[in-house]
């Protein structure tokens, strides 16, 4: 189950494989301190300038990040050989010889300083370690890497005289932490970046009581010449400064900045939008993509720009092919894809103006089509269109239109008046009024004309209705009162605004309704009772 979820969430468009190789050099002063040498006249207390070198290899143990997750961290595991250095510690030792008892004798006879000429004591060191840590993309081409490691530091001390060389190696544990601020210089190969950086390192474990040379043992029966550097043990080996600062050169394999990652997912979303709205119904094959890339030169030149193809293809043709290519094909790399989208949006072939014209053209097409599905598709393709409000209004109008068509099919006073009551500001208000007046005109009844004038005091057909009152039939009952008595009176919002009067007068008006309103209500009741009586007779 967990594996299934991980597979679903994984980003397989670009697996997050990543590795890094680096080389560091950190100038440092290393201090060797020997308190009681066996034969030397003076103890060794030397501070040497060295340039420890470190090399390492890191890899990311996590194969893929979560789908679309903006993960700025890259976790590392790896190995490192650090503090690779060598240097001469001392030369030409001034030392004493030993007596028959094997102990050194400090007198002129046993002064062997001349014998020490040409003899040197040097060291070489390296520390293989395992490391782990993380990198954090600060932004753009800057990365911050933090590593911690543990290993063993090998110090080899060499006592060299002419052709005689003796060495001894000591192994001590080491622990360290390092941080590097890295800057990506360039991409030398695809997905291989060269970087430079500043590295800071601190070691924690002390290096103490390290034997550099074996002590001299005098043998009467088989005497051998002594070495001035015999019997040296360094009580402490340390660096002058607590941290070492140096330069780093590295090669990063599969690096992707946060900006590139966000851009890749943004462009992938745009790919999907192009696919959803593309006129190319079937996806292009790999051969089609290769042919388009070759013919339209959808690749970057040596200057990192797209070749100018404006002389070979029209703007419309180039743009349409580019949309299809981005929708169904895969450009060589992210830089190429960005350039292609930049060309599509605001490129040198003036695609911005073309897209505006294309949007206008599609707007005219979808508005003329009266097709809600095409209008919805326009909003998906142009979510930030300045004409979004018009399209949304058109969608609402079309939705209302289908309802109004049913009302027109009924063609009754009640249907039209019910629509106006439910949609006082409806898109088909005028059409409903026209339908009502047409029914009034056909019935030619004075009561209906009066109700129309009362219901539509500012209507389009007021003058025509007033003129028709003279020849209207004043004896026939109202069709409106018969079919829709509940809609005879205009709604409150359509009534004429009342004149503001003192509160007492308003209360009196509420208590005592006008005689006209009483008569209108009585007429409505009589018409309703007649309608019920007729319906009973029909039954």
Describe this structure in words.
The protein is built from 15 helices and 14 strands. It is an alpha+beta fold. It folds into 3 domains: 2-256; 260-349, no CATH class; 411-533, no CATH class. An 8-stranded antiparallel beta barrel has the order 1-4-5-8-9-10-11-14. The chain has a 4-stranded antiparallel β-sheet with strand order 3-2-13-12, with no helix packed on it. Strands 6-7 form a two-stranded antiparallel ribbon. A hairpin with a 5-residue loop joins strand 6 (97-98) and strand 7. Helix 2 (258-277) crosses helix 4. The longest helix has 24 residues, at 515-538. The radius of gyration is 48 Å and the shape is rod-shaped. The two termini are 69 Å apart. The relative contact order is 0.07.
Give the structure's gist in a few sentences.
This protein is α+β, with helices and mostly antiparallel strands and about 550 residues long. It has helices spanning about 1-10, 260-275, 285-295, 315-330, 335-345, 350-370, 370-380, 390-410, 415-420, 430-445, 445-455, 460-470, 480-485, 505-510, 515-539, and strands at about 20-25, 30-35, 45-50, 55-60, 75-90, 95-100, 105, 120-140, 140-160, 165-190, 190-205, 205-210, 235-240, 245-255.
